[in-house]
Specification:
It is built from 11 helices and 7 strands. It is mainly alpha-helical and about 325 residues long. Strand 1 and strand 2 form a beta hairpin.
Length: about 325
């Protein structure tokens, strides 16, 4: 195995199982394919941009769509670096930083387009779309605009479906955000096409309304991703790759530790470092002689084997569960929420 393959087989000191290694290679490949498609589609839309506000919004959204795949590719290079003295937890947070940068750009541009489109609607600006001569034939430019939108509507949906599965396998929230945006791109294309056709039918306001819909979609994506990125960087409780619910690994570890005959109580706190988790499990032994180093190490190895994301884990024997480290813990142990 060469050095490149060795680097690709781990995130920091976390060795990736074969399934995750394959998913990572596929994700990198599909993100490059996405970038190539976006380069072609944005150039195509730019050629037929015209005076349509909806087409302008769709073009800017295509430009912003470069951010998630580029962020993913950069982050996956950075997090392969081994932990160092200055970065003892590794570089996993690079994923969160990339997520944050992309989210802020979406929020800023979505907000700008929303205001710009709203002003054009309020001031009743009437966009015009003229004719174009191509191969000796003159026809309405709007037909090329609609054609460009239809041609660029389908591929992102397919890319989104493919990358969504890979995001789940890799527990990658940047890849998930990119896939989620791709899957919704058809709505942008459809809105822009309807806006252009509205101009052709004399409905001047249809273009601005379509632009508002696209701008709202961009802003919604930005706010959603910004919330997730800030949550990850501020050490919220680890959640699933799509942020839909708390990740079940913490409860599985607690259940296993409490099932051990030498453990009376056990609770864990789990934070998401990007792809992997940092886990601290506090255990109260039934009898202190029972909490031997051998038993603790064996329990840790069993927990790590539950999930590839759990390699960065410590088990701390305590006389009583520390409520200051386990918010939501009741006096008698209770539930860790």
């Amino acid at each position: 195995m060469n050095n490149g393959e060795k680097d690709a087989a781990r995130f920091g000191h976390t060795a990736l199982p074969p399934e995750q290694q394959r998913a990572l290679r596929k994700a990198v490949k599909w993100e490059w394919i996405t970038i190539i498609f976006l380069a072609v589609s944005t150039f195509l839309v730019y050629l037929v941009l015209g005076n349509s506000q909806a087409m302008k919004a769709a073009w800017i959204e295509d430009m912003l769509s470069f951010l998630p795949p580029i962020s993913f590719l950069v982050a996956t290079r950075v997090i392969r670096r081994r932990p160092s003295e200055s970065h003892p937890y590794g570089y996993h947070r690079a994923v969160g930083v990339a997520h944050l940068v992309a989210a802020v750009a979406l929020v800023v541009m979505g907000g700008y387009l929303l205001v710009d489109s709203g002003l054009k609607l309020v001031t009743a600006e009437h966009p015009t779309i003229g004719g174009i001569t191509l191969l000796g034939n003159t026809f309405w430019l709007g037909w090329l605009m609609v054609l460009a939108m239809l041609l660029t509507a389908g591929p992102p949906v397919v890319l989104g479906i493919i990358k969504m599965k890979l995001a789940k396998t890799l527990h990658d929230k940047v890849l998930y955000a990119d896939a989620d945006m791709n899957k919704a791109d058809w709505m942008t294309a459809l809105s822009a096409a309807v806006g252009v056709l509205g101009i052709g039918m004399g409905l001047w306001w249809a273009d601005s309304v379509a632009a508002l819909i696209i701008s709202t979609s961009i802003l919604h994506d930005g706010i959603k991703n910004l919330r997730g990125a800030i949550g990850g960087l501020t050490d919220t409780r680890a959640r699933t790759y799509d942020d839909s619910e708390p990740h079940p690994l913490g409860e599985r570890i607690d259940a296993y530790l409490q099932s051990l005959p030498w453990v009376r109580e056990a609770r864990s706190r789990v934070r998401d470092e990007g792809h992997v988790f940092h886990i601290e499990s506090f255990v109260v032994p039934r009898k202190w002689p029972g909490a031997t180093l051998r038993r603790i190490e064996k329990a840790r190895e069993a927990c790590v084997e539950m999930d590839w994301k759990a390699q960065d884990m410590v088990i701390v024997p305590v006389t009583v569960l520390p409520e200051e480290f386990l918010p939501g813990l009741t006096q008698g142990g209770g539930e860790y929420r």
